[in-house]
Amino acid sequence: MAEQKNPHTGHRARMRARFKASAPATFASHELLEMLLYHTNARGDTNETAHALIEAFGSIEGILDADRSHLETVFGIGENAAIFLSLIGELAKRYTAEKLSAGSVRPAALDTPKKLAAFLLPRFIGATKELAYALLLDNSLRPLDCFPVGDGSVSSVSISVRTVAERAYTKHAAAVVVAHNHPSGLAIPSNDDFALTHRLKEALDLLEIPLLEHFIFSDRSYTPLLGRLTERTHGAADLAASPILDLFKKQ
Predict the structure, then answer these.
(1) Where in the chain is CATH 1.10.150.20?
(2) Residues of the chain with CATH 3.40.140.10
(3) Domain 105-247 carries which CATH code?
(4) The pLDDT of residue 65
(5) Distance between CA 201 and CA 199 in Å, rounded?
(6) pLDDT, tens digit, 9 for 90 and up, residues 62-121
(7) Could you tell me the pTM of the whole model?
(8) How far apart are the C-alpha atoms of 29 and 17, rounded to whole Å?
(9) C-alpha angle with apex 72: 66 to 73, nearest 5 degrees?
(10) Are the C-beta atoms of 31 and 22 separated by less than 8 Å?
């Protein structure tokens, strides 16, 4: 019995040849998505699946931000394809964060809340659950390290105070900034947010490393929380005692 040929083989070869000969920007989004899915579907019609994905989620952004369970509801998307698209989405977020924060060999000082927020924001773009990051700064308020310190559900996040303190001490950080997001709400601090900020500040104070700010992000807005904490606890004088804070120009 003769081996049955894959009816899509010729189409895929033509698409690859076109991609090699043309600039990727000339391809429509569904065509790029179709070719990407070749890696998870050896024989099927990924063109139809690409169109189904865009119809379901509205855009490439919507697809790459979607939960794996939602992706698997689309015709032609199984577990492997859903995992593959989720990996691409996470890589895209990290690429964007690195691209936007990259600069010269010696990065610029993050000496205002606006600069700090612009540096941290890309790490939360497209997040569907709460995430948390810590940013370590040197004596000139230039970034030393930025790393995840917790994740959670849609409505809560757990930040490891010990992880933040230990890494700040090991890296000889001069100051620390933490940030987390409210993906399904407003950038309004809760009582738990205030309590966490207080614990972080106390732990870092023992190491003589100031907590410069705690940001809450929601969509593309943000709230700097530390100033509100000092108003609540009447500790504003403690903030002014650290020389590193003289570099931090309040807006």
Answers:
(1) 9-97
(2) 105-247
(3) 3.40.140.10
(4) 87
(5) 5
(6) 899 888 999 999 989 999 999 999 999 888 888 877 766 654 445 688 888 888 988 998
(7) 0.59
(8) 17
(9) 95
(10) no
Length of the chain in terms of residues written: 251
Among all chains, which residue has been given the structure tokens 């705690």? 214
pLDDT for the residue numbered 101: 62
Tokens 């065509």 sit at which residue? 31
Q: Percent of the chain having pLDDT more than 90?
A: 35
Pair 240, 204: CB distance under 8 Å: no
Fold of 9-97: DNA polymerase; domain 1 (1.10.150)
Terminal CA-CA length for the chain: 77
